[in-house]
Design goal:
single chain, elongated, 21% strand, 9 helices, alpha/beta, 5-stranded mixed β-sheet
């Protein structure tokens, strides 16, 4: 049977999950829109609860279980991207703990304190996945990894990453316990260019909020670094700064191996 009404109980429940973060968090489930994103969620063993599929858009090559077929009109109302791709999956959240992460001898971690914008977090996830960062940690979070805008802007890169939420002190304790070199992105007279530091071993780079940078908690917790710039501005968008830093880590590791 094809669901053709927005008043259908399953559609009303889905709409709540898509639009109300509190509902999503209470149920510990999240929505994934798009073919590539759902393929990645399944590839990395996220447990699917159900799928809402518009056969007119998606076609017939879809999972054979937990399927609700919806009309084009219904899909275009519930989907953020209109008629694109024709699939929305609902998945269970994974319980993750930073202390369960087992770093390698040359593991690299990006830490984000108090990140506010889901789009920025999604963009950071893409950079971390693309440049081989081993884990992404957010502290004092004002958005969460399972926010629909994070999943959308990361293009599903979230699902292949080690990602954690933790308190600042918990992160510092973990990094020190596991012999990570900590770099803080604080502009100071003693700050060095990121290219001047050896990032080939265990390293963690900590970034602050989009508008005010790192809190006082992080002062004195690591070596201060900056992204060298030749222009007249003194700052970059958070996701751009992270992307440059992730690339520098990869560049150094490749050079070290050769």
């Amino acid at each position: 049977m094809i669901i053709q009404s927005l008043q259908n109980e399953k559609i009303k429940k889905l709409t709540k999950i898509l639009t109300k973060n509190n509902e999503r968090k209470k149920l510990k489930i999240f929505a994934v829109e798009g073919k590539q994103e759902n393929e990645r969620a399944l590839k990395f063993d996220f447990e699917a609860v159900e799928f809402f599929i518009c056969e007119d858009i998606f076609g017939t090559d879809f999972p054979k279980e937990k399927i609700h077929l919806v009309s084009r009109e219904v899909y275009e109302k519930i989907a953020y991207r209109g008629s694109s791709e024709g699939i929305i999956g609902i998945y269970k959240e994974k319980e993750t703990s930073l202390n369960d992460f087992k770093p390698k001898a040359n593991s690299s971690i990006i830490v984000l304190e108090s990140i506010e914008k889901p789009g920025n977090l999604g963009a950071v996830l893409r950079s971390c996945e693309a440049f081989g960062i081993d884990a992404l940690v957010i502290t004092d979070s004002r958005t969460d990894f399972y926010n629909p805008n994070v999943i959308r802007s990361s293009v599903g890169c979230l699902f292949g990453m080690n990602f954690f939420q933790a308190e600042n002190q918990e992160v510092v304790d973990f990094l020190k316990k596991n012999d990570f070199q900590i770099f803080t992105t604080i502009m100071n007279t003693d700050s060095k260019g990121i290219n001047e530091k050896n990032l080939t071993g265990k390293s963690a780079i900590v970034f602050g909020t989009e508008h005010s940078g790192l809190s006082d908690f992080w002062r004195g917790k690591g070596e201060n670094i900056i992204v060298p710039m030749a222009g007249t501005i003194d700052s970059l968008n958070l996701s751009n700064a992270v992307a440059i830093s992730c690339y520098e880590i990869l560049r150094q590791k490749i050079s070290h191996e050769n």
